[in-house]
Specification:
single chain, mainly alpha, three-stranded mixed β-sheet, 7 helices, 48% helix, 10% strand, globular, binds zinc ion
């Protein structure tokens, strides 16, 4: 039976078929390891995550509401049934509140730096755009030109983890 690819439902059939074939050949892990030879990164605690996020915010979305807290959260479960937004992180606080909080799944500690950056960019873009609309993705790409490739790769990592039977 072919795996369901629950993290890739919004991608074209041709892409999904390609991923199915990589999985069938047992090559998904190898492909990701080749694309990301450096799996670890230095952002391993809330303090460094906060600093990194604030630097990006200063550079790209300076006028957006201040972010008071940024942290890793081990309790965010990357549930199959949820979309990327709700499972990787959460922005807390209403739109009108001055204080914003960004929580990033602790899973990102073990992923390549580029993917951590991608999810931080995603959450920073939500300071301006609540929905995943065109303006939202344009802002993501402005902050990280490889955004779409990185989001796809993140979904491949999640698929791999799911196939390995690990909780995501
Ligand atoms: Zn989102």
């Amino acid at each position: 039976m072919e795996p369901q690819l629950t993290f890739l439902t919004s991608y074209p059939e041709a892409v999904r078929t390609q991923v199915q074939s990589l999985i069938a050949q047992g090559r998904l892990a190898e492909v990701l390891a080749t694309r990301y030879p450096q799996m670890s990164h230095d952002i391993q605690n809330d303090k460094t995550l906060y600093q990194f996020t604030q630097e990006l915010k200063q550079r790209f979305v300076k006028s957006s509401p201040p972010v008071s807290k940024v942290c890793f959260d081990g309790k965010i479960h990357l549930d199959n049934s949820l979309g990327l937004h709700s499972f990787v992180s959460r922005v807390q606080g209403g739109k009108l509140k001055a204080k914003q909080e960004i929580r990033i799944s602790a899973f990102f500690k073990q992923l390549p730096f580029a993917l951590l950056k991608m999810v931080v960019v995603h959450e920073l873009a939500h300071l301006r755009e609540k929905d995943h609309n065109k303006a939202f993705y344009q802002l993501c790409q402005h902050m990280e030109p490889q955004y779409h490739q990185l989001e796809f790769d993140l979904r491949l990592f999640l698929t791999l983890r799911q196939l390995e039977g690990k909780a995501v």
